[in-house]
C-alpha cells in the first residue's frame, strides 16, 4: 500500500482532530500546515486579539527575538505561532493581522510583510531609517490597500511616507511632518491619527488622479477634550484615541480613575473651519469593543470573537510601575478592570511594554484559503 502524505489525510479525520483542540496555539498551528488542512478543520470561532509585548526598544523597532504575543488577561499566557521569515529579526508594525519585519533596527535594507496564519510574505521597498509601518487594509482581500511608513524627524517629530502596490519606491505623504504618531485608524479612504502632542491629522486619499493625499491638521485637540469634564476640578486625561467602529469614526477619551467616567466615547462632528467638536456621547457599542493604545486602533465584535467582552474599551498602556499593563473599561458600568503586569516579565532585568494590539486577519473561515 502506497504511503499517504500528511496533506492527504481525509477531511473528516482532520475536522474530528481539530474539534478536540482547546488552545489558540494548537488551532493556529493546524491552520498553518497547508491549504487542505485549513479548508478541512473546524472554524476557529474564538480567535482572540493579543498584546504584542516587547523589551524597551530603540527607534521604535522591537527585536522579534525579544517579543511575544500574550493574551490580554490575568497570567498573560504567551502565544506561539511559529518562526518568522529568516533574516528579518526586527518588528516595526502589526496591522491587519500582518507583522512588518526588517533586517536591521538602525539601517534596514529589507522590509517584508508576514501573515503568520498562512505564512504569506509580501516584500516592500525598505525606507531607511524606519520606525513603524501601518496598513490601510488586508493585502489578501483588498485591491486598494496602501502602506504608511514613519521616519524620525528631530527628537519627537516624524515624517510620513506612502507606498501603494506597484510603486517603485515610497513617496512623501506629508511634507511638513508631524509629531510622533500615537495611534492611527483607517476609514473610507482616510487615515486619522493622533500624535503625541494630541493633534489630529486627517489624510484623505480620495483625491482622484492626484496620488498625494490631502492632509488636514486639527491643532491642540486636548483643549477640546478638556472641555468635556464638567466636574468641580479638571481631571487629568490618560489618553485620547480615534478608532473606526462599524463604519463610524469614534473618539475615545480615557481619564484617570478619579473621574466618574474613566472612559468616554464620542462621535466627532467636523466643522467648516476644519475643527472638531464632541457633543454626542456613545454609551453602548452594541456587540463591539474598542482596542486602543500605541499604534493602530480597531474594533472587534464579541459575536465573531466570543472571548472578548462587549461594550468595552481595551487599553494597552505603558506600565510605569510594573503594576498593570492592560485596562478594560466597561462603558455600561464605568468599572475598570485592571490586568496585572505579568509576573514572568517582572522577573526580567529589562523593561517590557505592550507595543501594540495584534489579531489574526479576517475573515477566518475555511473557504477563504486557496492553494
Automatic annotation (TrEMBL):
InterPro entries: F-box-like_dom_sf (IPR036047), F-box_dom (IPR001810), KIB1-4_b-propeller (IPR005174). This is F-box domain-containing protein. It comes from Urochloa decumbens. Residues 86-329 form the KIB1-4 beta-propeller domain. Pfam families: Beta-prop_KIB1-4, F-box. Residues 6-45 form the F-box domain. PANTHER family: F-BOX DOMAIN CONTAINING PROTEIN, EXPRESSED-RELATED, OS10G0520400 PROTEIN.
Amino acid at each position: 500500500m502506497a504511503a499517504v502524505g500528511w496533506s492527504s489525510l481525509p477531511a473528516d479525520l482532520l475536522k474530528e482532530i481539530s474539534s478536540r483542540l482547546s488552545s489558540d496555539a494548537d488551532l493556529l498551528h493546524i491552520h498553518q500546515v497547508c491549504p487542505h488542512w485549513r479548508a478541512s478543520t473546524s472554524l476557529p470561532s474564538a480567535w482572540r486579539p493579543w498584546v504584542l509585548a516587547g523589551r524597551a526598544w530603540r527607534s521604535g523597532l522591537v527585536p522579534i527575538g525579544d517579543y511575544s504575543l500574550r493574551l490580554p488577561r490575568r497570567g498573560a499566557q504567551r502565544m506561539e505561532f511559529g518562526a518568522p521569515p529568516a533574516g528579518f529579526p526586527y518588528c516595526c508594525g502589526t496591522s491587519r493581522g500582518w507583522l512588518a519585519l526588517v533586517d536591521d533596527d538602525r539601517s534596514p535594507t529589507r522590509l517584508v510583510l508576514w501573515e503568520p496564519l498562512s505564512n504569506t510574505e509580501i516584500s516592500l521597498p525598505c525606507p531607511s531609517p524606519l520606525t513603524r509601518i501601518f496598513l490601510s487594509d488586508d493585502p489578501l482581500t483588498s485591491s486598494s490597500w496602501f502602506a504608511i511608513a514613519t521616519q524620525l524627524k528631530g527628537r519627537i517629530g516624524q515624517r510620513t511616507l506612502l507606498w501603494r502596490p506597484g510603486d517603485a519606491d515610497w513617496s512623501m505623504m506629508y511634507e511638513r511632518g508631524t509629531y510622533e504618531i500615537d495611534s492611527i485608524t483607517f476609514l473610507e479612504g482616510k487615515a486619522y491619527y493622533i500624535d503625541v502632542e494630541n493633534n489630529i491629522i486627517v489624510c484623505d486619499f480620495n483625491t482622484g488622479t492626484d496620488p498625494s493625499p490631502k492632509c488636514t491638521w486639527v491643532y491642540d485637540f486636548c483643549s477640546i477634550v478638556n472641555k468635556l469634564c464638567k466636574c468641580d476640578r479638571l481631571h487629568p486625561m490618560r489618553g485620547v484615541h480615534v478608532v473606526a467602529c462599524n463604519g463610524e469614526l469614534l473618539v475615545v477619551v480615557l481619564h484617570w480613575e478619579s473621574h466618574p467616567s474613566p472612559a468616554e466615547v464620542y462621535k466627532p462632528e467636523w466643522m467648516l473651519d476644519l475643527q472638531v467638536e464632541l457633543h454626542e456621547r456613545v454609551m453602548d457599542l452594541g456587540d463591539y469593543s474598542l482596542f486602543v493604545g500605541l499604534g493602530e486602533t480597531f474594533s472587534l465584535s464579541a459575536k465573531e470573537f466570543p472571548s472578548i467582552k462587549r461594550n468595552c474599551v481595551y487599553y494597552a498602556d505603558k506600565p510605569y510601575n510594573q503594576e498593570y499593563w492592560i485596562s478594560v473599561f466597561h462603558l455600561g458600568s464605568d468599572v475598570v478592570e485592571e490586568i496585572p503586569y505579568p509576573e514572568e516579565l517582572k522577573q526580567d532585568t529589562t523593561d517590557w511594554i505592550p507595543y501594540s494590539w495584534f489579531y489574526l486577519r479576517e475573515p477566518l473561515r475555511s473557504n477563504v484559503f486557496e492553494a
